[in-house]
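Thanks for the sequence, V.! I ran Beta-barrel porin 2 right away. Repeating your input here for the record:
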Amino acid sequence: MKRLAGIAALLALQLPVLAVAADIGADGTTIIRIEERSVPGFSKQTVVPATQYLGFDAEDIRVKGLSLHFYGWGRVDLADDSSESTKPRSTDGNFSYGYLQYRFDKANAGLKAGRFFVYEGVAAEQVDGVYARTDLNKGFTVSAFGGIPVKLDRASSSKGKYIGGGRLGYRYGGILDLGLSGLLEGDSPTPYGKDKRQLAGVDLWLSPHRMVELSGRSSYNGTTEEVAEHSYLLALRPLSGLTAAVSYTDIRLKDYFTFTNTPSSLFNPNNDEKYRSHGLTATYRITQLPFPAEVSLDYKHYKRDSKGNSDRYGGELRLTPVEKLSTGLAVARIAAANGIMSYSEVRAYGLYYTGRYSVNLDAIANIYDEKVYGKKNAYEVTGGCGYQVTPALRVSGEATYADNPWYDGDVRGLLRVTYSYNNKKGAAQ
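Predicted structure:
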């Protein structure tokens, strides 16, 4: 918390100077939810959380290429506690990122310092530290980062003391991008104590022809000394308007989630088993109709050692019958290994928008093979509208009514205000 407050204070001190010197962009969203909760066996609750999201970007701060970026959110409950946690928390917030960045004129090189997200090969982390990358000769690239991992739950010790990693890549024209990456986190918590979190991986993007694209990654857990994951996607575009994709995933839960901070979840690393899936999706843009239309079909097979086999079949039709009106109808069937998890799903939706107004309606229903808490069906209907007050200010709202096995009555409302500000060299927009 002290580290978080220190970074926020440092950024706040910079704002008056930056406001004069830089190209500035800021955006914010205010969301107020209103929800009545009626769970069988528990007293009714009225929750009214007000959440403020705020982002800020300042480009070319006195020096071309130097920029500042910030994003965070805060919430306060105006009625009952909304956190659904064993520890009531009427206020909450998070500093998602805030960093200084410098982009060099050459070699696509850059530096970051502060709190940021990094996605480099096996690394998908939130870090307080520094990051650097650059292109090298002959198509090679290199990146590296280091610092202190940001805890996902600020009340626990779900992260280690330090973290570092990097990726060495090779690009060949617009055909190939191949990377080798690694990550090391010290004193990282596991279900059995603390250990070094060590990951290594290879990632691939290959497109030898515009009709073919292969991407994916494999990772190795150096702590458990086992392969953690294979995940690949092959996309094909054999005809104009037609895209087909085949996916394959193979995850060893024990090795993939060894350092998870949710040990009691479905992804419990104590489950020494495999999770595998493969699927096929196909999307076709229909050009024979007098208006835009698209149809998609999908199938996916799941296999988990302890749960058995499951399948999902689905299809969706998207139409724009008149200008500014988008509609869709989707159906799906989930056939699980046991009946209580098997159900069929139907969804219909529509959105009409003009330059300043918008109206949307969305309805979804699930029909279970077996009753869940005495009910065999669940449905939810959401309607909303929006109005663009000015080019920078928009107001919108939604209301939802649902009936499902988990709530006697589920009524929700939402009010959203979004606004943005841009100032290019002192000229407000």
